[in-house]
Design goal:
The protein has about 675 residues and is α+β, with helices and mostly antiparallel strands. It is built from 28 helices and 14 strands. The strands form three sheets. It has a six-stranded mixed β-sheet. Strands 3-2-1-4 form a four-stranded mixed β-sheet. Helix 4 crosses helix 5 and helix 12 packs across helix 14. The longest helix has 22 residues. The radius of gyration is 27 Å and the shape is globular. It binds a DNA duplex (10 and 7 nucleotides) through strand 3, helix 8, strand 10 and strand 12.
DNA sequence: CTGGGCATCT
DNA sequence: AGATGCC
């Protein structure tokens, strides 16, 4: 609408392929919704005017302008997609509070959640009230300087700011008072509406019988830990309560640039090559404008096959030779593309046997491992410094380090700012007074750009400051803070400090009754070396129940058709235990075709499997690895979580349920 | 189950 | 390299 103001008054839909990805409010009043199919939209609203939105350039540029503008007020800005930003405005609020002694004459700008009058509570919550004024100013700046309207939410953490931002929809703002936190959480219709709870998580929660936010609030944490592991369990529970201690992590420049296209079908190598060439050309241009040099290239495809009709992607990546990367940064785009195309095709052939038939429905090209010019090579793989540069502990965001120094560290986001003075311990204490403002804006665009990075990376630079980052970074206090109950339940001989460092799956295992109830009293010890390997003398005794494994095996032995073979993979007898510690990880399992070198689920008869056509085998393997059901069985599944989850894990190649095995010494 | 991105975690 | 999550 900014690019073409005439479109403001007509119902407008932004089209990507066969979908209306978004639309203006004129169209919404006529029944058009986001993510509606084109045909459906045209039925509802024949006058709908369409603009193609497959090229994101304009939206991306405008998006970064918004982020940049916000950063000019305070550097703590975190992007969420192209049209949302979190901003920690605590500092701004405190500054203003110090400047305005008459704290009794405060009022709120905009709405206050669950309060009809915006005056209510203002003097009780001077910081939130000031936050609402700042939010109003930010929105006004975005409007006057960029021409965009949008919403804002003002609250004491990111989760709440986001939730409250949508309560008064077009172009308005809302503040949430602490006494109304429970109200807004309870107002959600289901757990899926909690930000951070996606489709998969919602399904797993539902399998535990949890549907509403209240269900999750009241659910015993220990049961949740069994399903999700300590950290995730606590996180989900907190979210349901409206608790979110995650800092506003400055996003900075993107860590990868990618370009993709989907299509009906591509079935020839030549078409693949042409499409890759097309995608690479535009991506290389974007990369050049960014200014950084990519050192990794990734090719991703989505293929259409018998078992895997759509979705689920495969990818291969490889380093980019330095001379090629330099062609990109230097602007020799054609040469760069000429060198990248063969690289891409090499990766393509690692995934697709082009001597057989294939059909792709999507291709994506991606640059990552982006390094600013002149930055020291600090992230060398073998280099010890890579352990100190965050990548392994908490992925740091980027090289953006605004010149305005911020005496406000957010524990994991600000390590790169160490040359400024501040104490890494000041973080958590600020929680109670923190204000987060979320701004949402419809993206639209036009205009020139000063690249986000150009200015930004100049101000900043300093990729990966080497050693001095260690001290403030190593320990996330997450765990110690929140989960006494968990560490209290630890088996003897397990150092809580060590336990905390273990992978989630392992933690989960150690907390299962098998361990906590009957740890062999003899010489069971857990040791951790630099790599997280647990060495145990014995497998616990309580792993003996192999009943359902037998049942599954019997069932699978009867299978003679592909469909049924597949079906048993995600359907098993009812009443199976919910978690691996109880009966799945038994000796039966160990003796079963399930060792780490066995690549397919143990409930599938190897003979049957081996007799399948090779390509079908490969597809099935792919399915299992992806932990996705091959067949949509309509048969009734008990709500109390049948084996779906467990089998998904089982299918996960070495990364899930059989995870534990590789931590035991081979017997 | 549609679309072009991005991020984080394992 | 894949799964999951966000827009």
């Amino acid at each position: 609408m900014i690019r073409n103001p005439a479109l403001r008054e007509v119902p407008l839909g932004i089209q990507q392929k066969n979908i209306i990805v978004t639309c203006n409010y004129v169209a919404r009043e006529l029944g058009v919704t986001k993510l509606m199919s084109l045909t459906h939209a045209k039925e509802k609203c024949p006058q709908l005017v369409l603009v193609n939105g497959e090229d994101l350039t304009h939206y991306r540029e405008m998006s970064y302008k918004v982020t940049e503008l916000l950063m000019s007020y305070s550097p703590l800005v975190e992007r969420l997609g192209f049209d949302e930003n979190f901003m920690d405005i605590t500092k701004m609020v405190e500054t203003r509070l110090a400047e305005t002694p008459e704290s009794n004459s405060f009022s709120f700008k905009g709405h206050v959640y669950n309060h009809l009058s915006a005056v209510v509570g203002a003097s009780d919550h001077p910081r939130l009230a000031l936050g609402s004024h700042i939010a109003a100013e930010l929105r006004e700046a975005i409007h006057s300087k960029l021409g965009l309207t949008g919403c804002a939410g003002i609250a004491t953490n990111k989760l709440l700011a986001k939730l409250v931002s949508g309560t008064f929809k077009p172009n308005q703002q809302t503040s949430l008072l602490p006494e109304n936190i429970a109200d807004i959480m309870d107002s959600l219709n289901c757990l899926r509406q909690v930000p951070g709870v996606g489709h998969q998580t919602a399904k797993r929660l539902q399998a535990l019988g949890l549907v509403s936010v209240k269900d999750l609030q009241l659910f015993p944490l220990t049961d949740l830990v069994r399903e999700f592991g300590g950290p995730s369990a606590q996180r989900f529970k907190n979210l349901a309560l409206g608790v979110d201690d995650s800092p506003v992590t400055p996003t900075g420049a993107p860590q990868s640039l990618s370009d993709e296209d989907s299509f009906k079908k591509i079935s020839s190598t030549k078409d693949v090559l042409e499409k890759i060439q097309e995608l690479l050309s535009s991506l290389v241009e974007r990369m050049h404008k960014d200014g950084r040099q990519p050192h990794t290239f990734r090719l991703t495809i989505r293929r259409c096959s018998a078992t895997n009709k759509w979705f689920s992607r495969e990818s291969r990546q490889s380093p980019i030779p330095n001379h090629t990367g330099q062609k990109i940064t230097s602007g020799s785009s054609d040469e760069a593309v000429a060198q990248l195309v063969p690289l891409a095709m090499k990766l393509f052939h690692k995934m697709v046997d082009s001597s057989a038939a294939f059909h792709l429905t999507l291709i994506n090209v991606c640059f990552s491992n982006l390094q600013t010019r002149g930055a020291a090579a600090t992230s060398g793989k073998g280099s010890i410094t890579s352990f100190f540069t965050q990548q392994r502990t908490s992925p740091r965001k980027t090289q953006i380090c605004p010149t305005q120094s911020q005496d406000d560290s957010s524990q994991k986001g600000d390590i790169h700012c160490m040359d400024h003075q501040f104490s890494p311990h000041s973080v958590i204490t600020r929680r109670t007074s923190q204000k987060t403002v979320t701004t949402k804006s419809p993206c639209c665009s036009e205009a020139a750009l000063h690249g986000f990075k150009r200015e930004q990376s100049l101000a900043v630079a300093v990729e990966d400051p080497p050693l001095q980052t260690v001290s403030c970074n190593t320990v996330r206090s997450d765990f110690d803070e929140k989960d006494d109950t968990m560490t209290n339940r630890l088996p003897p001989n397990v150092d809580p400090e060590v336990f905390r460092l273990l992978p989630e799956e392992i933690q989960k295992e150690l907390l299962s009754p098998a361990y906590t109830n009957s740890v062999p009293s003899t010489s069971s010890s857990v040791t951790v070396t630099d790599a997280p390997h647990i060495t145990k003398n014995k497998t616990p005794q309580s792993f003996t129940d192999s009943q359902n494994i037998k049942a599954i095996k019997e069932a699978s032995n009867k299978l003679d058709s592909l469909d049924r073979l597949v079906t048993v993979n995600h359907q098993s007898p009812e009443g199976t235990s919910a978690f691996p510690g109880e009966n799945v990880m038994g000796e039966g399992r160990l003796s079963f075709p399930w060792s780490s070198d066995c690549e397919f689920p143990g409930n599938v008869d190897p003979k049957v499997f081996s007799e399948l056509p090779l390509d079908v085998q490969r597809e099935l393997m792919s399915e299992w690895k992806q932990q996705k059901p091959v067949l949509k069985t309509t048969s009734s599944r008990k709500p109390g979580r049948s084996l779906m989850t467990k089998d998904r894990k089982a299918a996960g190649k070495g990364s899930q349920a059989n995870n534990l095995l590789k931590y035991f010494k081979p017997s």
